[in-house]
Each structure stands twice: as structure tokens, then as C-alpha cells.
Design brief:
The chain is of the alpha/beta class. The longest helix has 17 residues, at about 140-160. Helix 1 crosses helix 4 (about 140-160) and helix 4 (about 140-160) packs across helix 6 (about 185-199). It has a single domain, classed as Peptidoglycan recognition protein-like (Lysozyme-like). It has helices at about 5-15, 60-65, 75-80, 140-160, 170-175, 185-199, and strands spanning about 15, 20-25, 25-30, 35, 45-50, 90-95, 100, 105-110, 115, 120, 125-135, 165-170.
């Protein structure tokens, strides 16, 4: 959808309505796996994940099917292992940089699980989950870094408690339990992309 668009042009396309919690420039596929944030709690953290279904394979509808509870369990042995999970994320960044939104930013997506940030547990309560289609040991694509920079900039512009300094990996908030986005994710490159998008 947005593949091949420069970071500057992509940033213009991505805008967040802070009231509705929707991002313009992202496809909308609502997930049932969400609920309301606790009263008085706003988004203060962005958590970057890596996901591929089946593991190490890209493309296909399987991440969307997982987040909408419609994964065909007989299609792959791994699907049978995870098919009962009720999980979601706010956004998915595909390998070509295209975006799909599953949960409104004003709602709580079920992406982090048992987690802790700066001494504060239950990160789902106060975070936005961003899934990058990828795997721990496979390099992420340029289009994904561009999209990540643009979407973080759009989120920071919409929600004042967010900032580039509050972007972490799943492994940072769930150490020992999670490894994503993995050693193949270039944090320095991601931070340069975010800084460029923020201008």
C-alpha cells in the first residue's frame, strides 16, 4: 500500500486521530482481542515486536488471521500450537512497509503479556504494540524502518506522553521470556528513521 514511498512522504500520509484512535494511511482490520485501558491511563510507551507465521516465513494472511481468531489450525503444525491464543497488536508493519491497524490506540491491545517497564508492570495498560513482520535473525526491510519512523512520529504528534525515548523492544519489557524484535533489528537505524520523520 505504502511501499516505495519515501519517509517524508509516508509521514504526510500517516495521521492519528487522538479521539478515535485510528491511523489514516493504515488498513483497518478490527481485532476482537482488546478491551479498554484502565481509567485515566493513556499510551506512554511504544513496544516493537517481531512476528512471522509460520515462523521464519513471510507473506500470506496468517498474522491477520491470528489477530482475528480465524487461524486455520490444520494448515500448519505451528498453527495448532498457537490457535487458542487470544492476542492482538495495534499495528502490523508488513515487509513492504504497508500498515494494518487491528486495535484503536485508545484501547488496550493484548500484545505484551507479562511485562515491566521502569518498574511498572502490565505494559498492555499503557503501551501501543507495533508488530514488524520479521524474525529475530532475518534483517528487516528498509520499507519497515521507514514506516516505523513515520508511524512513531504520527503517534508522538497525537499523544503527548509518547516520545522517541519511549520506544522499546518486546525483549526489553519481557526479558528472558521474549527475544523479539531480535538481534537482526537495527535500533540505531530505527532511531534515525524516527528522528527524520519527526523532522
Amino acid at each position: 500500500m505504502l511501499a516505495g514511498v519515501s519517509a517524508a512522504k509516508r509521514a504526510l500520509k500517516l495521521q492519528v486521530d487522538p479521539e478515535t484512535g485510528l491511523m489514516r494511511g493504515a488498513a483497518q482490520v478490527p481485532s476482537p482481542n482488546c478491551d479498554g485501558r484502565p481509567p485515566g491511563v493513556d499510551a506512554e510507551l511504544i513496544v516493537v515486536h517481531g512476528i512471522s507465521l509460520p515462523p521464519g516465513e513471510f507473506g500470506g494472511p496468517w498474522i491477520e488471521r491470528l489477530f482475528t481468531n480465524s487461524l486455520p489450525l490444520d494448515r500448519h503444525p505451528y498453527f495448532a500450537e498457537i490457535g487458542a491464543l487470544k492476542v492482538s497488536s495495534h499495528l502490523l508493519v508488513a515487509r513492504d512497509g504497508s500498515l494494518t491497524q487491528f486495535v484503536r490506540f485508545t484501547d488496550r491491545a493484548w500484545h505484551a503479556g507479562a511485562s515491566c517497564y521502569a518498574g511498572r508492570i502490565a505494559c498492555n495498560d499503557f503501551s501501543i504494540g507495533v508488530e514488524l513482520e520479521g524474525a529475530d535473525t532475518i534483517p528487516y526491510e528498509t520499507a519497515q524502518y521507514d514506516a516505523l519512523g513515520a508511524l512513531v512520529a504520527a503517534l508522538c504528534n497525537a499523544y503527548p506522553r509518547l516520545s522517541p525515548q519511549r520506544v522499546v523492544g518486546h525483549s526489553d519489557i519481557s526479558p528472558g521470556r521474549k527475544t523479539d524484535p531480535g538481534p537482526a533489528f537495527d535500533w540505531e537505524r530505527a532511531r534515525r528513521s524516527i528522528a527524520a520523520a519527526l523532522g
